[in-house]
Here is the input.
Amino acid sequence: MSTTLTKTPSVSIEAAMQPTVPQQEPKLVIFAWSGELDKIWPTLILATTSAAMGQDTTVFFTFWGLFPLVKNEVRITGDTWMQKMLSIMNRGGIDHLKLSKMNFAGAGPAMMHSLAKSHNVASPSELLAMAKEMGVKLIPCQMTMDMMGLKREDLIDGLEAPAGATTALLAAQGASTLFI
Amino acid sequence: MEPTTVTRRLDVQGFNCPIPIVKTAKEMKQMAPGELIEVLATDPGSVPDFSAWSKATGNPLIEQSQDGGIYRFVLRKR
Here is the structure.
């Protein structure tokens, strides 16, 4: 089945007169510092959209931002009692994120997920899978991993090699940057 | 001569931002230059977003219409 269309010129005269070579390829680098549901959600929406726009897109996950990358089924991480306590108090996994406000011991996120579902809004876990599919580079911060006792095998598959601030800042050169 | 018939269709009705754009981008990756795709969406935000996406990627938005709450876009792969 095919529909015949009225033929319209695909390029306007004004567009044809624009310089065709862009000065620099647009890039987006997001520093995902906060691991909360209401911050990771827009982070992943922006990252997937940026990739869909053909932009080179990187998300550098640091500090609290690393916990959403922990596998959902991994409960306790770390070697020392402090690192273990940290993972108990701040459960990792994209399906276990808390809201930065109105968390109400988990009732808030449950309601937010229910609202999202009824409005056909993709969940963070769906967006994370989509980001990987779209070629978004997801870089975990090596220093935070060491400090908080997160091992590579605690984190989900499909991430770039853990790296440091220099790698993140190199990616950020000439890019639009967001710190979320 | 560039094709004037739609050879691909994408139904993203019911989906909200950013899914219509992300799915369209994914679909268009597999298309040949010049090929046309028709996208049906119900997200009102897709009207400005498809126009912005077309500008950003250089894939011309050659037709756009609305039928009730359904938005129809025809894009040509650059």
